[in-house]
DNA sequence: TAGGCCATCTGGTCCT
DNA sequence: AGGACCAGATGGCCTA
């Protein structure tokens, strides 16, 4: 089952460290040195005559008089010098490729950080990040064009389209948790929460009969939604131990607000908004945008994208924010 | 143990 | 020639 990917400790340290590449390079060089120090074999598994004879000529006529002559450029034999050059090229190319992929991953991490549901410890997989990003853009477009609210099932449905069930749970859990009013406005929705017999710790965002992850029918995903159980959320062990915990405790500086122009703008000076002790913290402190962007900015700021402060559990959050509303329901 | 996800290596292709 | 990009192969890690 696809689960939000959590990097191992070593991997996290490796990525965050600046010295990883040197170490990786040196260790890989060592390994490759060992590999390359072995006698050179040709494609048939025979020891290369150049290695045996230690000739330094780079090109040599191939001495097989039996096989028919081949057209095209003659295949150069791998002399020692050519092998060394090839090895050096290969090592450099590998390093470049690693660097390129790290750049790609950095970009992906940036993308993750502006998703409506972000955690550094429990990351969306690459493919799910891209899918969620696509949905996010689409959902925001819908909000802008049709005036649809971001605080409703419709918004969550748009976000969850095509996502795997675990990711849908994650996103829905995040957004529902931070938009409690959404599910307490209507009587029937209260009933759904109270009546849903939900096993253990998972968000019951599943749709019975739905193809298992990864990517079942989109409509099935969103049309069979049930709200999460706040009961499970209120269990501290759920927050601290459960791998499905939607947003682990906030653990770092806020992610930069997304500029409407498509650039990521980062407030250089501490924003008063960031220093406030919110029960949960908006990711988008007010930014100065042009008149034309005002509406878009407003819409964007409405997107329920929050992370819990580090010292706040879901329980304390729920008690603090939802208060008697939830308590009353659970006491039934 | 299978499956998902990942990083890395590698060879091919295209471009400068 | 060398760099960027890509896709396939491989093996490690993690979880159900």
UniProtKB/TrEMBL annotation:
<protein>
    <recommendedName>
        <fullName>Neurogenic differentiation factor</fullName>
    </recommendedName>
</protein>
<keyword id="KW-0010">Activator</keyword>
<dbReference type="Pfam" id="PF12533">
    <property type="entry name" value="Neuro_bHLH"/>
</dbReference>
<dbReference type="InterPro" id="IPR022575">
    <property type="entry name" value="NeuroD_DUF"/>
</dbReference>
<feature type="compositionally biased region" description="Acidic residues">
    <location>
        <begin position="53"/>
        <end position="64"/>
    </location>
</feature>
<keyword id="KW-0524">Neurogenesis</keyword>
<feature type="region of interest" description="Disordered">
    <location>
        <begin position="25"/>
        <end position="85"/>
    </location>
</feature>
<dbReference type="GO" id="GO:0043010">
    <property type="term" value="P:camera-type eye development"/>
</dbReference>
<dbReference type="GO" id="GO:0046983">
    <property type="term" value="F:protein dimerization activity"/>
</dbReference>
<dbReference type="InterPro" id="IPR011598">
    <property type="entry name" value="bHLH_dom"/>
</dbReference>
<dbReference type="InterPro" id="IPR050359">
    <property type="entry name" value="bHLH_transcription_factors"/>
</dbReference>
<dbReference type="GO" id="GO:0000981">
    <property type="term" value="F:DNA-binding transcription factor activity, RNA polymerase II-specific"/>
</dbReference>
<dbReference type="GO" id="GO:0045944">
    <property type="term" value="P:positive regulation of transcription by RNA polymerase II"/>
</dbReference>
<dbReference type="InterPro" id="IPR036638">
    <property type="entry name" value="HLH_DNA-bd_sf"/>
</dbReference>
<dbReference type="GO" id="GO:0070888">
    <property type="term" value="F:E-box binding"/>
</dbReference>
<dbReference type="Pfam" id="PF00010">
    <property type="entry name" value="HLH"/>
</dbReference>
<keyword id="KW-0217">Developmental protein</keyword>
<keyword id="KW-0804">Transcription</keyword>
<keyword id="KW-0539">Nucleus</keyword>
<keyword id="KW-0221">Differentiation</keyword>
<keyword id="KW-0805">Transcription regulation</keyword>
<dbReference type="GO" id="GO:0005634">
    <property type="term" value="C:nucleus"/>
</dbReference>
<comment type="subunit">
    <text>Efficient DNA binding requires dimerization with another bHLH protein. Forms a heterodimer with the bHLH protein hes2, and weakly interacts with hey1/hrt1.</text>
</comment>
<feature type="domain" description="BHLH">
    <location>
        <begin position="88"/>
        <end position="140"/>
    </location>
</feature>
<dbReference type="GO" id="GO:0061564">
    <property type="term" value="P:axon development"/>
</dbReference>
<feature type="compositionally biased region" description="Basic residues">
    <location>
        <begin position="68"/>
        <end position="80"/>
    </location>
</feature>
<keyword id="KW-0238">DNA-binding</keyword>
<dbReference type="InterPro" id="IPR016637">
    <property type="entry name" value="TF_bHLH_NeuroD"/>
</dbReference>
<feature type="compositionally biased region" description="Polar residues">
    <location>
        <begin position="25"/>
        <end position="37"/>
    </location>
</feature>
């Amino acid at each position: 089952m696809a689960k939000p990917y959590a990097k191992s400790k070593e991997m996290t340290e490796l990525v965050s460290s600046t010295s990883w590449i040197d170490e990786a390079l040196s260790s890989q060089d060592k390994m490759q040195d060992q590999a390359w120090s072995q006698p050179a074999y040709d494609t048939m598994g025979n020891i290369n005559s150049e290695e045996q004879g230690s000739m330094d000529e780079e090109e040599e006529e191939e001495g097989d008089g039996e096989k028919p002559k081949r057209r095209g450029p003659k295949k150069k034999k791998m002399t020692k010098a050519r092998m060394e050059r090839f090895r050096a090229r290969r090592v450099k190319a590998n390093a470049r490729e690693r660097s390129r992929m790290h750049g790609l991953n950095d970009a992906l991490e940036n993308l993750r950080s502006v998703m409506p549901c972000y955690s550094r410890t429990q990351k969306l997989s690459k493919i799910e990040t891209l899918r969620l990003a696509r949905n996010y853009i689409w959902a925001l477009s819908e909000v802008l064009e049709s005036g649809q609210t971001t605080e409703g099932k419709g918004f969550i449905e748009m976000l969850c389209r095509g996502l795997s069930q675990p990711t849908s749970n994650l996103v829905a859990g995040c957004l529902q948790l931070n938009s409690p009013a959404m599910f307490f406005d209507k009587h029937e929705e209260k009933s759904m929460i109270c009546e849903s017999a939900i096993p253990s710790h998972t968000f019951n965002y599943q749709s019975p009969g739905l193809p298992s992850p990864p990517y079942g029918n989109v409509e099935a995903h969103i049309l069979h939604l049930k709200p999460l159980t706040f009961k499970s959320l209120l269990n501290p062990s759920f927050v601290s131990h459960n791998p499905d915990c939607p947003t682990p405790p906030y653990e770092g500086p806020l992610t930069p607000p997304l500029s409407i122009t498509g650039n990521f703008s980062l407030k250089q000076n501490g924003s008063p908004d960031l220093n406030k002790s919110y029960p949960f913290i908006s990711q988008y402190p007010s930014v100065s945008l042009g008149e034309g962007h005002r509406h878009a900015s407003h819409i964007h700021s409405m997107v329920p994208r929050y992370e819990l402060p580090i010292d706040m559990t879901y329980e304390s959050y729920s008690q603090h924010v939802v208060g008697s509303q939830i308590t009353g329901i659970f006491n039934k």
